[in-house]
Each structure stands twice: as C-alpha cells, then as structure tokens.
Amino acid sequence: MIKNRAIATWLFAVSFLVVVMVVYGGWVRLTRAGLSIVEWAPVTGVIPPTSLRAWDQAFEAYRQTEEYRQVHQSLTLEQFRFLYYMEYGHRLLGRLTGLAFLVPLVVFVARGDILRPRLRAFVAVALLFALQGVLGWLMVKTGLAGLPHVSHLSLTLHLGAALLLLAACLWLGFGYAIGQPRPEQPRVPGAIRRLSLVALVVTSLQLLAGGLVAGLRAGYLSDTFPKMMGQWIPDGLGRLSPLVANLLDNPAAVHFQHRWFAFVVLAVAAVLNRRARLELLPPYLRGGAKALLHLTSLQILVGVGLIAMHVPRWMASLHQTIGIAILAAALFTCHRAFRS
After folding, report:
1. How far is CA 55 from CA 70, 79, 87, 147, 212, in A?
2. Which of 4, 57, 46 is nearest to 178 (CA)?
3. pLDDT number for residue 1
C-alpha cells in the first residue's frame, strides 16, 4: 500500500469518532436512556422536538413502553428530556461519523488518491456504517417489544459491529500511515505472526464477552475478587440447558468467564511480548506487543477495581475505553506482523 498521510489522518480521525461513539453509547446504556426515542427516523430524526407540544408527544410515546411502566413511572418531562438528549446525541454522533467517512471518501476517489483495487475495502466500510445503524435500531426494538431493556445478545452484536468498523478503519489507516515495508527490514517469523493473530482473536472475544456482561448487568453480581459471591467456583454456573447457553445467557457464568478469561489474554500478550523482545523485529511491531501487554495489565487492575466499587459509571466507561485501546494495540501488532 502506498503511503498517504492525508488518507491516514482522515481514517484515524474517523476511528477516533467511532471510539467516542462506542464509549458514549456505553454511557447511554448506563443512564438507561437508550429506549427514550421510540422511533427510527434517519432523516427527520436529525431535528429533536422543538416545541412543548412535540415534547409532550415524544414523552407520551415513551410512556407506552414497558421501561416507563416498570422503571421510570415517576419520570418528569424535564428528566425525560435529559434521557432523550442522551440518546439523540448518540444517534446524531453516528450520523456525523458516517458523514465524516463518506464525504472525504468521495473527495479522495474523485482526486484519484484511492485507487480502484482499494476502493472495494472503503465501500465495505461504508456498508458497515449502514449496518451499524440498522443493528442499533433493531437492538432498541428488542427493548420496546416487551422487557424493559434491550436484548443482551443484540447489544453485543451492536458492539461487535462497531468494533469491526473501528478495526477496518484502523487497519486501512495503519497501511496508509506506514506504507510498504523497507527491503532491509527483518522478516517476521511465522510464530510471531501466529501469536499476534491469537492475541487479536482473544482480545476480540473478551470485548464481546464484556458486551454480554453489560447487557446482562452481570457485573453487579459480585463485588469481591478473586472469589465470586464468596466462592472460587460459584453455584449456578451450569444451571441452563443446553450447557453452552450458560456462556451467553447465564449472568453468573458470563461474569465468571469474563473475569478469568482476562488472564488468558494477559498470558498471550506476555508470551507475544517476550518473543518480540527476543527476535530481531521492526520497532513498530515490538512497540505494539509491549503496549498490548501493559494495557492488558492495566485493564485487569481497573476491572478488579470496577468489581470492588460495585460498577461506578465513570469506571465502567474507563474500563470500556481501555478495552478499545487494547483492541487497537492488538490490531496494530497483527498488522505489523503480517505487513512487515
């Protein structure tokens, strides 16, 4: 890939907006604002209610939901406006991020900076933006259809699509920022490549498991570590049938596996970092492996603090942000391993 600083800067800027959108989306969930807008209007929804009558209509629509009946029965119009604007801001940010990708893309294509063989990758990213919007609305619909919360599976799917979108933008951005490897660069051993790929896979799985924990509110089950609910292996981990359903639908099992799988990620990061130090590798690759190990270690400490403090909102957002940084480090390391 030819080095192009302008395209790299644009892709990294879009990646930053995606990160903000994901973290802000987590805050929307924590404040229970995600179901406050009960319709999906991609065009007309750009403008929020502008009159008292329009606000009353929006509030009346929300009062028909189970979340209002079971959770927010004492909600005032002013309190509803706060929830509405939280969700509105998330949807508006999604639209602006999509435009921040599409408008410069048209310019770069018109100028011939993005060659035809590379155009398919950018079209795929554009389709991911559209898919993310659709998945977001389908997720909201699961919370409007019955229970006063969105499906944890839909939430995790929505998160996964956002992380895939971020990964696609970063991967392309890394290529345009660094360009072709220099001929004198040492060849990356196959073992390092395989380890970097494993690190990316386990990091991604752990982030998706975090989505399940958030969707099931499983983090509130226990505020002790290393024991969970006073036991090393708490009761009820396999109460659902079939057994595999516990990994997706059982809050206790989801919490348990998420807290301990973090050490699998740490072990992979440690092995990768050690191998990278022992091999003659490009400096970018060694730096990526080192960052991955340090961020994973920090994440475990924050995760333990999150449990002990009974999931304060600010720390939950910090935990999510560090998780995204770990994904970026793993992705960068993998990119350098396969592109060097």
Report:
1. 21, 12, 15, 24, 33
2. 4
3. 66
**Which residues does residue 231 pair with via DSSP β-bridges, in sequence order?**
228
Structure tokens at 334: 């993998």
d(CA 75, CA 96): 30
How confident is the model at residue 280, as a pLDDT?
76
Q: Is the pTM of this model over 0.90?
A: yes
* Distance between CA atoms of residues 268 and 273, nearest Å: 9
Q: Which residue in the block uniquely carries the two structure tokens 């770069």?
A: 108
pLDDT in tens, 186-208: 788 899 999 999 999 999 999 99
Q: What is the pLDDT of residue 184?
A: 63
pLDDT in the model for residue 283: 80
The rounded distance, in Å, linking the Cα atoms of 119 and 124 is 9
Query: Within 13 Å, how many C-alpha atoms sit on residue 21's CB side?
Result: 28
Angle at CA of residue 95, ends 80 and 204, nearest 5°: 95
Q: Which residues of the chain have pLDDT under 70?
A: 1, 181, 183-185
Q: Which two tokens stand for residue 237?
A: 């981990």
For 34, residues 6+ apart whose C-beta sits below 8 A from its C-beta are: 28, 87, 90, 140, 143, 150
